[in-house]
Amino acid sequence: MTPAARWRSPRAGFAAALVLALVAAGAQGVLSTRDATPPVTSTARVGETAVLGGTTVVVDAVTTAAALPAAEAGDPDVAGPAGSVLVLVVFTQRVDATVDLERHFCTSTLVADDGSVWDTDDELGYRLRRPEASTCGDDASDPIRPGEPRQIGASFLIPARYADQVRWRLSLEDDRTRLEVRP
């Protein structure tokens, strides 16, 4: 092999590897553009209605307190540890016939101004007086029926210092939209 051929061979291999890497990166970019595209965010206040794709959401109430009523009549109020507050968000969802119920689910979080995020606390939620449904998704015991309202309760336990700094965020995963409510 001539010196020129030896020099070209590694360069050609490198160039081929570079082209393959760029093609793979481009394909991955095309496949993941959905994840890279930020969701569309709507805002509302308590009592207002928001339409997110084929889902209508009414924010019924946002209650923040050191203690909230227990699910069982006669039980003492439910309280968190010292220095915490409970937040209960009650909202009504109505989906139209265009919503794919197998892909319809949501994430309910509280977000603070400093970027702190809290997920729902299901253990707490089962102890509170709230709507039976705790998620937007279909449930065998409480299926979603297009056109019919479904009241949902989401409960959170957060540090008391964040009580007046949080907003509730409902993210609908099926159409990449979300609603933010500042109580």
Automatic annotation (TrEMBL):
Alphabetic keyword roster: Signal
Superkingdom of the source species: Bacteria
Signal sequence residues: 1-27
Name of the protein: DUF4352 domain-containing protein
Source species of the chain: Microlunatus capsulatus
